[in-house]
Amino acid sequence: MSDICCGPGDEHGHDDEHEAPQRLWRVREIQLAGLAAVFLVAGFLAGWLGSVSGGIALHLAAAAVGGWTFVPGTLKALWRRRIGVGTLMTIALAGALILGQFAEAAMLAFLFSISEALEDHSLARTRRGLRALLALVPDTVTVVRAGIQSAISPENLRVGDRMLVRAGERIPSDGVVRDGRSSVDTSAITGESVPVEVGPGGEVFAGAINGTGVLTVEATATVADNSLAKVVRVVEDAQQRKGARQRLADRIARPLVPAVMVLATAIAGLGALLDEPATWIERALVVLVAAAPCALAISVPVTVISAVGAASRLGLLVKGGAALETLGAVRVVALDKTGTLTRNNPAVTEIIPVDGVTSERVLRVAAALEAHSEHPLAAAILAAAPAPVPADAVTTVPGAGVEGLVNGTPARLGKPGWITAPALDADITRLQENGTTVAVIEHDGVVLGLIGIRDELRPEAPEIVAELRDAGIEVAMLTGDNTRTAAALAAQAGIADVHAELKPTDKAALITRLQASNRGGVAMIGDGVNDAPALATADVGIAMGAMGSDVAIETADVAFMGTDLRHLPQALRHARRARTIMLQNIGLSALIVLTLVPLAAFGILGLATVVFIHEVAEVFVIGNGVRAGRLRALRGAPAPEPVVVQRIPAVPQAGEDGCSCCAEPPIVPARRPNLLDLRPPARRDT
Question: What family does the database annotate (predicted)?
Answer without folding.
Answer: Belongs to the cation transport ATPase (P-type) (TC 3.A.3) family. Type IB subfamily.
